[in-house]
Amino acid sequence: SQQGEEDPQALSIQEGENATMNCSYKTSINNLQWYRQNSGRGLVHLILIRSNEREKHSGRLRVTLDTSKKSSSLLITASRAADTASYFCATDPLGSARQLTFGSGTQLTVLP
Amino acid sequence: SQTIHQWPATLVQPVGSPLSLECTVEGTSNPNLYWYRQAAGRGLQLLFYSVGIGQISSEVPQNLSASRPQDRQFILSSKKLLLSDSGFYLCASDSGGGSSYNEQFFGPGTRLTVL
Asked: Does A43 sit within 8 Å of B44, measured CB to CB?
């Protein structure tokens, strides 16, 4: 079963707006990661946040983690058409022997 | 960083035919290797992972098998393909036991269509 579930499933915004995607998970984790996938391509790692961190920034990306609510959010500020892609959260559950469990993804479309 | 090579990029095979997808890794030693399958518009399903040569763990019972004949080579196989084997297959690697963080690097994927 999927550990992480993204919300919304699809999101369409105008260029320049901010995009927020959410991820919920079920069990305790070592860390949570966000990945991006362009259509028909492999996934690219964006950012990792550890279970003892609450917020992390990387360029236009901001990730938050609330372990009490078992949820995370990914914020992309000042979106660009090139940000159009699917975004997945992946959790590293405690005791998982380093395996990641991926959510079903959010399809983000940024309109020019 | 690591580079993951996968081939072929696309493959169309008849039901009942064999399958061999290959994945090789550059830029790291002793990686953990993973095979995932992705249905259209869905997330990733972990099929197999390997922590070392000849060590394969299967996550789901299925018509597929995996092998790791060399440290940086991972092969996905089937003796007889089923229609349900169609999908997008992704190979991934992380840094193995030497790293505290297990971010994964992905190959470009193979689109398999079974007719």
From this structure: yes
Q: What share of chain A is helix, strand, coil (3-state, %, to 5)?
A: 5, 55, 40
How close, in Å, is residue A14 to chain B by CA atoms?
22
Contact A107, A9 (CB under 8 A): yes
Task: Convert the pLDDT of each residue in A25-47 to its tens digit.
Answer: 998 998 999 999 999 999 999 99
The phi and psi torsions of A82 (rounded to 5 degrees) equal -70, -10
The b-or-e profile of A46-80 (16+ CB within 10 A means b, else e) is: bbbbeeeeeeeeeeebbbbbeeeebbbbbebeebe
Q: Which residues contact B18 (CB under 8 A, 6 or more apart)?
A: B77, B78, B79, B80, B81
Report how far residue B49's alpha carbon sits from residue B91's, in angstroms, rounded to the nearest whole number.
10
In the predicted model, is pLDDT for residue B99 greater than 70?
Answer: no
Q: Which of B32, B46, B103 sits opposite A33 (nearest CB)?
A: B103
